[in-house]
Amino acid sequence: MVNKILNYLSLSLILSGLGLSTFSLKARAATELEQIQEIRKFFGLDQYSYQPNLSQIKIAVIDNGFEGYDAAKKQLPDSTEVVSAYPKEMISKYNLGDPDYVQAPIATEHGKTMAQIIWGITGANPQGPKFYLLNANGITNFRRAVRYTIEQKVDLILYSQNRECCGNFDGGGFLNEIVNQATRAGIIWINAAGNYGGHVFNGTVQSIGGDQWVHFQNAKELRLKSRLDENKAQVILTWSANAAEEDSGTSEDLDLFIYDENNNQVAKSELKQVLKKDSLAEGETFLARERISFEFSKNKNGYYRIFVRAKNRNFNSRNNVRVVVIPERPPVQDNETQKMVDAIEFLDAVKGREIMVPADNPNVITVGDVSGFSAIGPTLDGRIKPEVILENSVASFSNGQSSSGTSNAAAYFTGIVAVLKSYAPHLTREQIINFPKKRPSSLGARIRRTQFSEVVSQHGMIFNSVEEMLDESPILAGQYADGRYVIGVRKDPRQFLQGLCQMNYNREQQLEFYLTWTSGTDRYGRPTGTTLQCYTRRVPTQENDQSPYPWEQYGGQRPAFVEIRQVFLSSGNFPSQGVWQTPSPENLRRY
Fold first, then answer.
1. pTM to 2 decimal places
2. Are 365 and 306 members of one domain?
3. What's 115's domain CATH number?
4. What are phi and psi of 351, to 5 degrees?
5. pLDDT (tens digit per residue) in 163-212
6. Are residues 418 and 337 in the same domain?
7. What distances in angstroms separate CA 179 from CA 94, 175, 184, 358, 490, one per listed residue?
8. Least confident residue range of 14-23, 27-36, 463-472, 579-588
9. Which of 35, 43, 302, 465 is deepest in the core (most CB within 10 A)?
10. Are residues 237 and 340 in the same domain?
11. Full domain range(s) for residue 513
């Protein structure tokens, strides 16, 4: 399961422009998360036993839809509540719109699947946690859902969605103010980072031409390449003109245009941005947003190009602009590079500042994964996002569905936090995000990084043997000051050296592994060739603990031994802030 988890599936893309994992609506409803014990062990939850108060922890999954949820199928605990329409008394009391207005959820399994991931990683105990599945289809329902969580005194909120509008890229705006109502009430809000990696351009306005075209970084166009025909995508333009109230409006009016490779205009969005007034006329909006949904064709000779035009002169270099391109189809393989690429490549995307609303909120815990699709910060005001990054996000269900992405990562993390709170009920957001993280290994301060060719020239037979046993190449190499080499691998040496090395130790005991080639002779003194030998050394746990190195115990020269060490690098994409590491129950008890 661990190998399956670490091999990211190309299924995890973006659903309905929200940066969500994909799930087929044609398959029958997912029943349960598979291989729960292996997943719990991977995340370090195998060291936590079930605590009865876990059933008392209240978790709200706020989402657009929960299609396929059937209480009779025991997909979630019996205590689960589904709320599609909110109590009229609550709506009236808190001025949450017309009490008779009801907007139903959309037909997506996403919210239900998120809840199933949470329940699975907590151990899938029939007693709980207690789940609230809350309809957030539309801003009105989003407001009502947040208020409902406060009324029910919920402990955790999972929102595995994002919106590309309604903020100023710094954690503000009216949507984030709604979120702040929950965090001020003491609820821990966990938000998916979104799968926007490589899909976002951020920039400031350098100038506006005489024809009103907006120029970005000495260019007035952004380029797209479509890899396929019948290739639908959304192109969304937003800018920093969103206020704290939904209907405050803006006087800054921009329009969005797309031209094909033959310089023909093929799509446009020309809403009129206006300031607050009693009612909107046709074609008017309060939001600083333009959005195009278009079916692209395969580029043959050139690029599709995105242009932005300003309707008035009050738009200038003080304004920040964001363009997001969201392909509907999953990545495809590039026949030239043999790598997976986006179905629509946003060639002028800029890495960083990809965090949308409300994941950019300073009061939420934003969760990503180590894949290239996971959105990263910083925010416009310089905050690191996401605060938590998981090493995997793959989820497989007993009906054959599988997915990955930041939605899953946030759901896994919500379950982890629920387990932690069953041990330490008063855990805060700040304590959680400040737990020690896993860091990429540097092979130790006393080890000099070397080229693989240097190791091969000295220990080619050992290097080749390790590569064969691994069924993949090592990822790091180094040399100690005394001349001996070390090879860094992704797998735990216990896994692939178990047939060669003696491991008569407690599995909790940390071991070092050394390989060497030795020449042997038969009983007549005739040479029998060289043999690969493995030696294990128990790492001392106390200062006076004596554990000899193999050359001290069995003889030989130090440089003849090559250490094999596991290092934690995730496909070269290990984040600088480290990845999540679940604390032990012993370390958690002080909180």
1. 0.76
2. no
3. 3.40.50.200
4. -65, 135
5. 998 888 999 999 999 999 999 999 999 999 999 999 999 988 777 776 78
6. no
7. 15, 7, 9, 7, 40
8. 14-23
9. 43
10. yes
11. 447-566
